[in-house]
Design brief:
single chain; about 450 residues; alpha/beta; Rossmann fold; 3 domains; seven-stranded mixed beta sheet; five-stranded mixed beta sheet; 16 helices; globular; binds nicotinamide-adenine-dinucleotide
Length: about 450
């Protein structure tokens, strides 16, 4: 487990060990031993599957591509987690992402364990036929450990509906006559996918911020008025003003979160900046997000980056350097691109008072501490970007029942789940000034896993 995740898990275990009410049946030496066992269980994956996929490229050359499926923990149910196609994929990264899935599912009470897959390629460098072969081979090589009751993959960076459809078809041919709709999630809707899955992560990301600054504050006005927490002061201050919002990353997560922000009725928002791999676009009066989505749809997902392209797209705004999005004078910064964006070396330049982690680990541990000391609220990845896995769970359910829900029903269930987690965690956060929101979420997730491991007799 990477140091940041591992350190917070251990810190959560130490706190729980010191809370007499938690697992109170365990006392004395038995208690210490059980918590040592928990540390060992949660810091290591159950199984590491790795292989080299043998592919014949279009030009005839045979290559062997590193591929992984890492199953971290299945205490809460079958393993679940995406498959990433990216050149930086390696065993340590996939293991860490698998651990994050275990914790995310535990936090949101989704009945799955945690896993992650990866293939070390840059997908843009492969033809469609080659990518198809890579998907087929991935399923063939890991066929024994995948399945609706064992391990259910989903898309991640570099993969989408098309890859899940190909993989599901391969699973179906390897297991003829067996139910297959629950084997992969994130499939196309025509092929047994769920309505609302594509937008789920971005919607969930925005929901966390709108619920925190609107619904939660109204429902907990007494708590907030009596709280001396610097985070409560930040939330109250932000809830009373028009918010300037910036969104880093304009892909599946970022574009949906930006659209939600731009069209939100509950908060007064202006999306003043968005960015992607090439550029930052800025306009102090707000950008036309639907027009930008339309442009990106016809331009391989990229934003207009030159003044000619901005004119052609009908966008009022100016293009800045790609990194500038991080340092603009905004109230809210939604990070929906990559990991390690805000670090010790650039954190001083960040002005936002609320940061929402749509991507996994975009704020490093050091930067998190510095921002938290300044009273900046960070809604962590484990809380903010769970919409995808929540609707994946609904897709898995629908596939097993072969009964499909409407888009409205999916959105309704997603909102209920996200709000339920938020209303468990936020009171703890605003009452306990000593803990960041990330630490509160980890405490909750680790506590859930520890309780289940104890009840299942796994600590002896
Ligand atoms: P995506 O590939 O659809 O979009 C990524 C976006 O980031 C693109 O707009 C790209 O141009 C931009 N980008 C790439 N490099 C950049 C850089 N250096 N600076 C600024 N922008 C850059 O990916 P996505 O599905 O939107 O996922 C975004 C993040 O959210 C990833 O970290 C992913 O792991 C995480 N996430 C996604 C989901 C999901 O359901 N899609 C769920 C949980 C977490």
């Amino acid at each position: 487990m990477a140091s940041q995740t591992g350190a917070i898990v251990q810190q959560s275990l130490n706190k729980l060990l010191g809370s007499p009410a938690f697992l109170h049946h365990l006392q004395g030496a038995e208690r210490t031993q059980a918590f040592t066992s928990l540390g060992a269980i949660l810091s290591t994956p159950n199984k590491i599957h790795k292989s080299f996929l043998r592919i014949t490229l279009d030009k005839g050359e045979v290559v062997r591509i590193p591929a992984f499926r890492i199953q971290h923990n299945d205490t809460l149910g079958p393993y679940k987690g995406g498959i990433r196609f990216h050149e930086s994929v390696n065993e340590e990264e996939v293991t860490n992402l698998a651990a994050l899935m275990t914790l995310k599912n535990a936090l949101h009470e989704v009945p799955f364990g945690g896993a992650k897959g990866g293939v070390a390629i840059s997908p843009r460098e492969f033809t469609d036929r080659e990518l198809y072969l890579i998907c087929k081979k991935y399923v063939q090589y890991f066929a024994d450990v995948l399945g609706p009751d064992k391990d259910i993959p989903a898309p991640d960076v570099g993969t989408g509906e098309r890859e899940m459809d190909w993989m599901t078809a391969e699973y179906k041919s390897i297991h003829p006559g067996q139910p297959y709709l629950g084997s992969f999630t994130g499939k196309s809707v025509t092929n047994g996918g769920s309505l609302g899955r594509r937008e789920a992560t971005g919607k969930g990301v925005y929901m966390t911020m709108s619920y925190l600054l609107s619904g939660f504050l109204k429902e907990h006005s007494t708590l907030m008025a009596g709280s001396s927490s610097r985070f409560a002061a930040t939330a109250v201050e932000l809830s009373s003003k028009e918010l300037r919002v910036a969104v880093q990353g304009f892909g599946n997560v970022g574009s949906v979160a930006a659209l939600q922000a731009a069209s939100c009725q509950e908060l007064r928002n202006k999306v003043v900046a968005v960015s992607d791999r090439n550029t930052t676009l800025y306009h102090p009066d707000g950008l036309d997000i639907p027009a930008l989505i339309e442009w990106a749809r016809h331009n391989r997902g990229d934003l207009p980056a030159s003044s000619e392209q901005l004119d052609a797209a009908g966008i009022q705004g100016k293009a800045l350097g790609r990194e500038e999005i991080l340092y603009l004078d905004v109230d809210v910064l939604i990070l929906a691109a990559l990991e390690d964006q805000i670090r010790e070396d650039n954190v001083k330049r960040v002005q936002a008072r609320l940061i929402v982690e749509g991507a996994n680990a975009p704020v490093t541990g050091e930067a998190d501490r510095i921002l938290s000391d300044r009273g900046v609220i960070i809604i962590p990845d484990i809380l903010a970007n769970a919409g995808g896995v929540i609707v994946s769970y609904l897709e898995w359910l629908q596939g097993r029942e072969t009964q499909f829900y409407s888009h409205e029903e999916i959105d309704r269930r997603l909102a209920i789940k996200m709000k339920s987690t938020m209303s468990t965690i936020l009171p703890l956060y605003f009452e306990e000034e000593s803990m960041t929101l990330r630490e509160c979420c980890y405490m909750q997730a680790v506590g859930k896993l520890a309780t289940m491991l104890y009840l299942q007799g796994k600590l002896y």
